[in-house]
Amino acid sequence: MRELTKKLKEQSALITGANTGIGKAVAVALANEGANVVINYVSHPELAAGVVDEIKFNGGVAIALQADVSKEDQVQAMFQEMYEQFGTIDILVNNAGLQKDSSIEHMTLADWQLVIDVNLTGQFLCAREAIKEFLRRGIVAERSCAAGKIICMSSVHEVIPWGGHVNYAASKGGIMQLMKSMAQELAPKKIRVNSIAPGAIQTQINRNAWETPQALQSLLTLIPYNRIGQPEDIGKCAAWLASDEADYITGATIFVDGGMTLYPGFSTNG
Ligand code: BGC
Q1: Which residues line ligand 1 (CB under 6 A)?
Q2: By CB distance 3.0 to 4.6 Å, which of 51, 119, 132, 155 could disulfide with 171?
């Protein structure tokens, strides 16, 4: 009975940067809904293998594939390998991303370029490959009423300016227009493209914002809901957004941020 209720049964999903953090939680959540998942990673194969083992232990299907999402040849090879193993792709979660923080006057071109290459160009390269396959294959009605679904992992910083992180904020602002423009172009082809914009989610990327009680206290002043987010908060949203329950949603950013984008500083001021 439970099998029948799985929202992503027999669909194939690729999640980039899925060996840790938000990507891992998204992969686990999609697998729990019946998707066969590719765990993409660029380093730490042992962590990717751990995610695969966890999913298999729970009765799911998962493989790990290494690729640097900012490299065209590696992305294309990864998709080919996925098609050999799973036949096709139904869901792409463009999650891989990183930060290289510094004040603008000290930001090197290399640190600017790396963040744009991985966070923004990587999403373009993976989306382009997935879209080619969605268009080639079209709708498979037994699996989904859409021909394909793309979820772009954005950030509250697609709208909240972030001093000291201009490369990161620029990459996320870019993702917003990449996502919306793809959604507009592809809606007539029944391909849905959306973003999830996480707020402060407790992972390694923002460890310094939660690892001491003082840091956490200061972070919580930015979060009206008064708790730090967990990767599973994003995983649950992604599993639903990829499913047919969200079939009329395209071109949207869903903020999963405990109210961080509600300008909490204005609740007692202004
Ligand atoms: C960043 C985190 C940060 C959060 C809220 C995320 O996109 O990666 O480092 O804590 O936004 O500011």
Answers
A1: 99, 155-157, 199-200, 205-206, 209
A2: 119
